[in-house]
Amino acid sequence: MRHAATMAVLVGCLALAGAATAHTPYLKPTTFAPSRDVVTVEAALTEGNFFVPDIPIRGEGGFWATGENGSPAKVDAVTALKEFIAVEVPLTAQGTWRISTGERAGRSAKWARIDGAWKMVRPAGAPGGGGGRAVDEAAVPTGAETMTSQSFLRAETYVTRGAPTRGALKPTGQGLELEPITHPNEIFAGEAFKFRLLDGGKPVQGVEFNISRAGDAYAERRYAYSAKTDPKGEAAVTFDQPGAYVLQTRYPVRPEGSTDPLPRSASYTLTFEVTR
Fold it and tell me: By C-alpha distance, which of 267, 98, 264, 99 is closest to 177?
């Protein structure tokens, strides 16, 4: 393994089509190749610039570290700050560790079909907003068809203490996740990073993913890459420059032209490093 240098403060931009202003969760380790038995991870949501935190990752659920045995262990050393959460992850053994938020629930919303169109239902006493796509709860007609939409998020990163191992790479089989084919701590410039996107443990084809490179805020041209998974749910990306990168994807997505809400949607973010 080619050891990565400790990351300094990095600034980047994620160019995700249709979500330029959305908050994106990420995990940023102080180093991808720790030599000590601990690594600290910044957990936050950003509004487009990696790694400039806006608000901490909140919601039900903890932070998890999975080592070579493949069993996730909850991380207890968690400090909540105003802009991010600092997670001190113990690395009790040599090898590769997956650090994750786990799949946790995000925003939920109630919808009602009124005059043939779905409108978001504002709870009683909630402030106005949403334009013509929102309606007060009291204004929902009796007998109207209703549904609840629920979003989920998962943010992950991998670090390796010593030699890389593959036990932590095994997917959980729950929700939207990325299964690395290429070891995530052995991604080298000029060589393909291969991976598979899964939902509920099954490969998903035709899913768009987007990748940005951190540190591009002052670059003449920012790195932005978009592609879709193949029929096996797989993809391969080759990078010509080393650095820290962020991959983001969402599944499922509404068909083009549709405004109907989805009962369930999930986002996934992976922070990784490309070395020379």
Answer: 267
